[in-house]
Every structure is written in C-alpha cells, then in structure tokens.
C-alpha cells in the first residue's frame, strides 16, 4: 500500500525552478537532463546537477500526489486549457468544465464555461459515448439498472439447481453421469452457454 505523503519533498528546503522547456542544454520538464550533465567538470559544455533543482522536481511530483491524496480533484490551474468534462477545485469548491475547451479560464466560479460540481450528487449525469451514439443516465438511474439486474428471483439451491434474475437471465448447474442432460427448468429463450467439468470419484 502506498504511503500517505505528509510533506511535498523539499517544501521547507531549497528549491530552484525547472523550466517547462529548455532554451539550451539546461534541464527542463520537456527534455529532462541533457547529455551536458554527463560531461566531466573539465569538459566544455559541462553542466552541474544542482541539488535545489532535484528538490524542485521531486517537490512537483510528490506535491501532486499529496494533492490527490487529500482531495477528490486537483487545484485549478488558471493557465491550463481544460477539456470539457474535467473537474478541478477552485476556492474550496469543485467545478466541472462544461463548454469551450479552447482557452484558459481563470475563475470557474464566475464563468459560464464551468458549473459547480458535487461528488455526492446522485443526480449528476453520466455520459457514455460509443459507435452506437451517446447514452446519458443519472447515477441514480444507473444504480436502479444495476439493482434491477441482480434482484434475486426464483431459485433452487440444490445440486441440480438454478437462479433466475429479474432481467430474465437464468443460471443453471447440476451433475449427470449421462451424456444427455435435462436442465432443472426450461430457458425462456435459448441456452447461451454450457460449461462441462469432469467429476472425479476420488476428489471433487
């Protein structure tokens, strides 16, 4: 099990910011450590692997993990162009991007591209897209579908038994010494699958 991160690495230490992109051979998030850092100190182009830069890189990684461990969505970044459907935290509230993933939005609480979002809202809609089109259901409706699909209906828990579900599915089992087997009850439409297993006389 992963440990809970109490402090982002080096948060009380020396931190030297690492750029997103390099303008030369210096370290960056895009390029990482260049070959200049592998050179001997006496060679031309040599770059020193700075301790504070290491601290910064680990601080960014562990700080992000810590953030996810402590809340359900990351803090909102005003310079990020979020895609529709993304959820962030802004001023201690959660917001979901609902339109216009074509520009950075600095304040979700006052912009119509965002709506306040609650993880506990059972009526929040869930959309699923596929080759057959899009399906939208609320969480409550999806839960009802699941509940109705597995409701316990008629059954017989014997060695040759069955279980029927409210959605019409019938599961049957049994054993026989004959090559001809009769199911305990008739299937309403068709038998979809049969799995046969040998029964040993010495163990089962």
Topology:
Elements lengths: L50 H20 L16 E4 L2 E5 L16 E3 L8 E6 L2 E6 H11 L2 E5 L5 E4 L4 E3 L32
Antiparallel strand pairs: 1-2, 2-3, 4-5, 6-7, 7-8
How would you concisely characterize the structure shown here?
The chain has 204 residues and is α+β, with helices and mostly antiparallel strands. It is built from two helices and eight strands.
Q: What report would you give on this structure?
A:
Among the domains are: 70 residues, no CATH class; 48 residues, no CATH class. The protein contains 2 helices and 8 strands, in the order αβββββαβββ. The strands form 3 sheets. A 3-stranded antiparallel beta sheet has the order 1-2-3, with no helix packed on it. β6 and β7 form a beta hairpin. The protein is elongated, with a radius of gyration of 30 Å. The mean pLDDT is 81.
Features:
15% helix; alpha+beta; 3-stranded antiparallel beta sheet; 204 residues
Average pLDDT level = 81
Number of strands: 8
> Tally the helices: what do you get?
2
Distance between the termini: 36 Å
Q: Secondary-structure element order, as H and E? A: HEEEEEHEEE
Oligomer: single chain
Strand content: 15-25%
- Largest beta sheet: what is the strand line-up? 1-2-3
> What overall geometry do the principal axes of the alpha carbons give?
elongated
């Amino acid at each position: 099990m992963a440990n809970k991160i109490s402090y982002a690495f080096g948060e009380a230490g020396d931190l030297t910011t690492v750029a997103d992109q390099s303008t030369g051979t210096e370290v960056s998030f895009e390029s990482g450590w260049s070959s200049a850092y592998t050179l001997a100190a006496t060679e031309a182009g040599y770059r020193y692997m700075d301790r504070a830069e290491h601290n910064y890189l680990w601080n960014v990684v562990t700080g992000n993990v810590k953030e996810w461990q402590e809340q359900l969505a990351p803090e909102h970044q005003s310079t990020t162009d979020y895609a529709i459907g993304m959820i962030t935290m802004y001023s201690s509230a959660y917001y979901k991007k609902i339109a216009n993933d074509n520009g950075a939005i600095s304040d979700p609480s006052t912009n119509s591209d965002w709506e306040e979002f609650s993880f506990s809202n059972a009526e929040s809609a869930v959309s699923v897209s596929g080759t057959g089109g899009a399906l939208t259901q609320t969480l409550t409706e999806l839960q009802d579908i699941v509940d109705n699909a597995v409701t316990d209906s008629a059954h017989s828990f014997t060695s040759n038994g069955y279980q029927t579900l409210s959605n019409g599915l019938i599961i049957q089992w049994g054993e026989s010494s004959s090559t001809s087997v009769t199911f305990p009850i008739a299937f309403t439409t068709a038998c979809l699958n049969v799995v046969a297993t040998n029964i040993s006389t010495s163990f089962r």
